[in-house]
Specification:
By secondary structure, this protein is mainly alpha-helical. It has helices spanning about 1-15, 20-50. It has a domain at about 20-53. The protein is elongated, with a radius of gyration of 19 Å. It contains two helices and no strands. It comes from Gadus morhua (Atlantic cod).
Length: about 55
């Protein structure tokens, strides 16, 4: 278990040091926002369908 925690911490530390150019960062943020908006819309549609039936 200790070894797994150590490997996880090492992986997180390594990942946090990866440099991304601003364009990639912006694309990822936009992708995340779009994904979140789609999920919210699907949830709203689901609630409306449940309420109308």
């Amino acid at each position: 278990m200790e070894r797994v925690q150590h490997m996880t911490k090492t992986a997180i530390r390594r990942a946090s040091h990866i440099e991304m150019n601003p364009q990639t960062k912006r694309n990822l943020q936009e992708l995340f926002v779009n994904f979140t908006l789609i999920l919210i819309c699907l949830l709203l549609i689901y609630i409306i369908v449940l309420l109308s039936s």
